């Protein structure tokens, strides 16, 4: 079990719920140690409280200074406002853990007290079932003890990869957004099965099992995707015909562009947030 820290999620959207669900299901941290808040949607807080046994607390009632870990899980556009709210409350020993796409550790550090401990994480929504691929990058003030805790925390909900922060945009394009690409791929395959009169529930399971099996082959066989693809592609066979159609219709190019565009958008969000936070910091210094 992970060290029983008290954790507060600021933001109660899909990612926060997926993480809460995964952590509670793993029995790694007691539900009563988990708090969640948002700006104004108390119905959402009550829903999460009832479903997962955690504490849904309105923002003005949450005692931020009593938390060990504060997880920033709001939309990027709301990040700066939330940081402004907590910057006069948080203490250096508290760990700030951000799962906001594009928000750098340096930007968070500029908004908070000088010695604040910050970690940037990029999980995906598969953490809901303990199968996330999560990247972690640490800020300049984070202790080894807190970074080790963060690794253990995210290992409760999947696999963890420690990477340099400059690689986070690409990781976001691959693993952060990646589940949606696979869901779209599965959606297209499912539609073809339905056209062939395979029952919807049956074809959904067939498609899911096919992708699950392929993923396990990669994890357990040690072969590259290219080698595994070639191994099942007989000349003039059905797989060869299917791959030929993929190549001719730009399947590989579409996947490449999906990853690149998601990474570019992550970079754009990062620049926008950095610029806004830096501008506000300068204004604060000028007022002094």
What are the SSEs and their pairings?
Blueprint: E1 7-10, H1 14-26, E2 34-37, H2 42-52, E3 55-56, E4 69-72, H3 76-86, E5 95-98, H4 105-111, E6 117-122, E7 132-138, H5 144-155, E8 158-162, H6 168-176, H7 178-195, H8 200-221, H9 225-231, H10 238-248, H11 251-287
Parallel strand pairs: 1-2, 1-4, 2-3, 4-5, 5-6, 7-8
Antiparallel strand pairs: 6-7
Helix pairs in contact: 3-11, 6-11, 7-8
Cα distance spanning the termini: 47 Å
Number of helices: 11
H/E series: EHEHEEHEHEEHEHHHHHH
Segments where pLDDT lies below 50 for 5+ residues?
none
Return the CATH architecture of the domain at 7-165: 3-Layer(aba) Sandwich
Reported for the largest beta sheet, the result is:
8 strands, mixed
Order of neighbouring strands in the sheet with most strands = 3-2-1-4-5-6-7-8
Bin the strand percentage. 5-15%
Helix content: 40-55%
CATH fold topology of the domain at 7-165: Rossmann fold
User: What's the β-strand tally?
Assistant: 8
Mean pLDDT: 94
Polypeptide structure, described:
The protein is α/β, with parallel strands linked by helices. The chain has a domain at 7-165: Rossmann fold. Helix content is 55%, strand content 12%. Strands 3-2-1-4-5-6-7-8 form an eight-stranded mixed beta sheet, with helices on both faces. Strand 7 (132-138), helix 5 (144-155) and strand 8 (158-162) form a beta-alpha-beta unit. The radius of gyration is 22 Å and the shape is globular. The mean pLDDT is 94.
């Amino acid at each position: 079990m992970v060290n029983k820290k008290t954790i507060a999620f600021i933001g109660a959207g899909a990612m926060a719920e997926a993480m809460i669900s995964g952590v509670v299901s793993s029995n790694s941290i007691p539900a009563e140690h988990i708090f969640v808040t948002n700006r104004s949607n108390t119905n959402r807080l009550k829903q999460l409280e009832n479903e997962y046994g955690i504490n849904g607390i309105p923002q003005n009632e949450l005692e931020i200074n009593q938390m060990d870990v504060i997880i920033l899980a709001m939309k990027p556009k709301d990040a700066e406002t939330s940081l402004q709210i907590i910057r006069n409350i948080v203490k250096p020993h508290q760990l700030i853990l951000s799962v906001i796409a594009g928000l750098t550790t340096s930007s968070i550090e500029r908004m908070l007290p000088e010695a604040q401990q910050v970690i940037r994480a990029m999980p995906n929504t598969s953490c809901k079932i303990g199968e996330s691929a999560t990247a972690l990058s640490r800020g300049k003030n984070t202790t080894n003890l807190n970074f080790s805790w963060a690794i253990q925390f995210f290992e409760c909900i999947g696999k963890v990869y420690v990477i340099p922060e400059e690689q986070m945009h690409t990781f976001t394009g691959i693993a952060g957004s990646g589940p949606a690409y696979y869901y779209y791929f599965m959606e297209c395959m499912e539609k073809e099965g339905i056209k062939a009169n395979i029952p919807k529930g049956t074809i959904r399971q067939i498609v899911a099992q096919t992708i699950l099996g392929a993923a396990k082959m990669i994890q357990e066989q040690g072969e590259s995707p290219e080698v595994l693809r070639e191994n099942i592609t007989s000349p003039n066979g059905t797989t060869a015909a299917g791959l030929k159609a993929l190549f001719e219709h730009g399947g590989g190019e579409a996947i490449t562009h999906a990853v690149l565009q998601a990474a570019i958008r992550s970079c754009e969000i990062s620049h926008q947030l950095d610029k806004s936070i830096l501008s506000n910091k300068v204004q604060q210094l000028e007022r002094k």
